Amino acid sequence: MSSRELLSFRLNGHPVEVPCPSPRVLLDLLREDLRLTGTKRGCDLGTCGCCAVLVDGRPTLSCLTLARLVDGRSVETIEGVSPPRGLNPVQAAFVAHGATQCGFCTPGFVVTATALLRSNPRPSRAEIERAISGNLCRCTGYIKIIEAIEDAARTEE
Amino acid sequence: MPSSEPGPYRLLGGRIPYVEGPLKVTGRAEYTDDIQRPGMIVGRLLRSPWPHARLLSVDVREARALPGVLAVLTGDRYPTPFGVLPITHDETAIAVGKARYIGDIVAAVAATDELTAEKALSLVRFEVEPLPEYSDPRSGLSKVAEPIHARGLLGSNIQKEVVQHFGDVDAAFARAAVTVRFRGRFAGVTHAFTEPMATVAEATPDGRLTVWSATQVPHYLHRALSEVLEIPMHRIRVIKPEVGGGFGGKSDPLPHEIVCAALALETGRPVKILFDREDVFYTNHGRHPTQNDVRIAADADGNLLGYDIEALIEGGAWSSFGTVTTYYNGVLAMGPYRVPNFRYKGQRVYTTKPPSGAMRAHGGTNLRYSIELALDALAEKLGTDPFDLRLRNALPPNSTTINQFRITSTSFVKCLTAVRERSGWDAKFRRLPYGRGVGLGCGFYISGSNSPIHFTPKMPQSTVHLKVDMDGGIAVHSMQADIGQGSNTLLAAIVAEVLGVDLERVHVQRVDSDVSPVDLGSYSSRVTFMMGNAAREAAESLRDRLVAAAARTLGEPAETLEVGHERIGVRGRPDRFVTFLDALHAAMETSGALTASGSYRSPTMGGTFKGARAGTAPAYSFAAYVAEVDVDVETGAYRVPRLWAAFDCGRALNRLAVEGQIEGSIHMGLGQVMGESMNYRSSRLLNPSLLEYKIPMPQQMPKVEILLVGDDDPEGPFGAKEAGEGPLIATLPAVGNALYDAVGVRFSELPITPDRVLRGLDLRAAEHRPWKGA
Ligand code: FES
Ligand code: FES
Question: Searching chain A, which residue's CA lies closest to the CA of residue B701?
């Protein structure tokens, strides 16, 4: 095992210090070392979006991100965008619209949509489609996902 | 917007959000890869780099000696063959004697970490003798030098051959006024669910084995583990965590599941095998690459006289569901139209490629594309509208097909009528400018296979148990496997509906073979129909006991009582009631916690000839879709801006879920017709990643209008039939026929990629066939 560094960054709003072997990717750090299993591993190749997290507020594929690159930055996972009790508006809309079927893609969509609505509270349909175009869903045909995001944008106003 | 007539039920028929939705949107739902066991180690698989090779010897000494390696397994350790169908056990956990495709598992390692496991795999040395590669199914139709399996028919690679003839097809064609022929070629496609397969296994000192696995069919996995590992079923516990999609790809018991359990037995440590995306693609079990040849005869009025169908189906390395596939590619032609004479010859041939298997709308999809395109050609020859041709030939309700399928409910005519009107068909068909067109495609699918895969012992296809204790929470146990389609939600809703209680009182328990009664799982679109009936029976028996207790408390005859709003009370007397909890506690006085059970077994049906059971189902779904296409005739690229989907699933019990199934099916169907393809260079899969195997993007989805027009099915729970697979089928021919309307080419090779569109246009131009003024 190569040399261990100590990473320090903000994770879901709290400062953390985590030992990290240098070739570790963020997804492994989150899922394996920190046991934050809400972030999903669909491909490990940057092709599915299941592993999306927010780095400094921007949707980022954690499977393609070297963990040491988040040193000094802020990382938000699905656990972080979820309120301690209940659901955030995006999550509530996903439930109400049936935008989850198998749910494996869902954390990736939820963090992506949460970031979108923070930076663009009233996105057009095309903007929503563009924002989620790095996230695959094989169950829903995206229809209810897009409806849910539109609905969340409306209710957040 | 879907139609929304109010139904007679409180919950059912509405839009019921999925019960596990809050867990899924917060990342709290537990999938197999999220499971962590104390001391857990890693299992990894070595896959064959050879398409076909005899394994002469293997040396695992170096691998075993590597520090951190706890076990190395090769095929000889657990050589008992298995397979999803009891009649075709031709798989082994790890290859025995031969490797049959690039990707076949030839060895497995358990180690303390992934890197060590990978290193160990690289140290396993094989001595092999290369064997002939069979990448074209046609090359396997006669005797071959080295059959892929010894069981191939007469020394060939034919795994299964089906020949059926009902009526007199030659006579029908001889007296026909019009005949048409359509030859389709279909690339293999795969499920592409987002969750890679994963299994965790743990053998404990009490002599038991626990297996958590991403499976659609926990019961068949349970059986296969028992057979191959030679451990009685009652000492194996199979648990199904949340499953991230299956679509048929997680319905076979898969070799890695058995290997994982074997490694746990060998090492005494919990073991996890997690697939990477390449593993998923090599495991495949997707839709069979198929060539079919459909001939249809009709009289001058457009009455269908007969079908003559042939299919050559590429099986890849194993049988999987292949025997069923071979039947389905013929017999699923039996609806939605009356077919008085029918002949079919189907052959499924092994090749040295990743195995094909069951994929959503298994066996019905490629066949239906060719039939529906042939019917449009027939309508054109007859000078009749495609809708009118289909209306004339629609199967009537309560009829029997020539191969003795029992048709009970069908709202197919309503599907046609509704979609014709909503899509504005009559103003569009043959009237849109060159490059734009509309097309009709129809569908027909089984609502649960009538014949369970295992006949012994004779058991119901579904059983549901309920338990309610003094807290008033209702625990529901069943081995039905929710893989995202919403069956847990439906199960809870049926119980709540019957008992007249709130949905949140009902807790559907995780599938666990120690406590869940057998249900055959999520395949053949069977769950709503079979589990639904079992759940209803269980809930009604519980309700009757609660009503009896309430009758005693109230001093009123039970017949005068009704349930609802968490109460049991006298009908028409709002002041005379007991609460659900009071009735429950009264009922518990003699027995303690209440339990109830319900089950479902489909009625006897079908003929007595060989293969008669294939395709028999307690009900069938029907569909009529219209797609609109917009073709860029310069580039061959096209879009499907609109799609109208009329579907008959009987009564839609959860509209949210039914719409979700239809929308997802359309996405998957569009993928197959527009672009998805497993590409090979001889036997080597060229695109085992989601980057190169592209599923449609959000921007490629049409605006979809869903029309749920089904009447109640007489035997379905609360009138329901399937909606999980049938909705895929009509998508493909609707697009194919729309392309013909747009540019005058009936594309026969799927996927219809832009280069194929251009080639089709060139060919049409070369033949000087003008189209809509082009
Ligand atoms: S796991 Fe990161 S994109 Fe698929
Ligand atoms: S809900 Fe299954 S992949 Fe999106």
Answer: A141
Identify how many contiguous H helices and E strands chain A contains and give both numbers: 6, 5
The minimum-distance atom of ligand 1 relative to the CA of A46 is: 3
Question: What integer best gives the mean pLDDT of chain A?
Answer: 95
Residue with tokens 């002939």: B132
CATH for B21-28+458-600, options being 3.40.50.1370, 3.40.50.150, 3.30.930.10, 3.30.365.10: 3.30.365.10
Q: Which of B626, B472, B478 is nearest to B546 (CA)?
A: B472
Q: How far is the CA of A37 from the centre of ligand 1 (A)?
A: 14
Under an 8 A CB cutoff, do A98 and B18 touch?
yes
Which residues on B lie below 8 Å from A97 (Cβ)? 656
DSSP-based three-state secondary structure for B182: strand
DSSP helix/strand/coil, B24 = helix
CATH class, domain A89-156, is mainly alpha
β-pair partners for A54: A59, A76
User: Hey, what CATH topology would domain B404-451+615-774 get?
Assistant: Aldehyde Oxidoreductase; domain 4 (3.30.365)
Scanning B75-114 for CB atoms below 8 A from A yields none
ipTM of the complex as predicted? 0.97
Q: Which ligand is nearest to the CA of B246?
A: 2
Q: Which of A78, A106, A111 to mutate to test the pocket of ligand 2 (most atoms within 8 A of CB)?
A: A106
Mean pLDDT, 10 residues at a time, over chain B (774 residues)?
64 98 98 98 98 98 98 97 94 97 98 97 98 97 95 89 98 98 98 98 98 97 98 98 98 98 98 98 98 98 98 98 97 98 98 98 98 98 98 98 97 98 98 97 96 78 97 98 97 98 97 97 95 98 98 97 97 96 96 97 92 95 98 97 98 98 98 98 97 96 98 98 98 98 97 98 88 61
Neighbours of B296 (CB within 10 A): 27
pLDDT at B3: 43
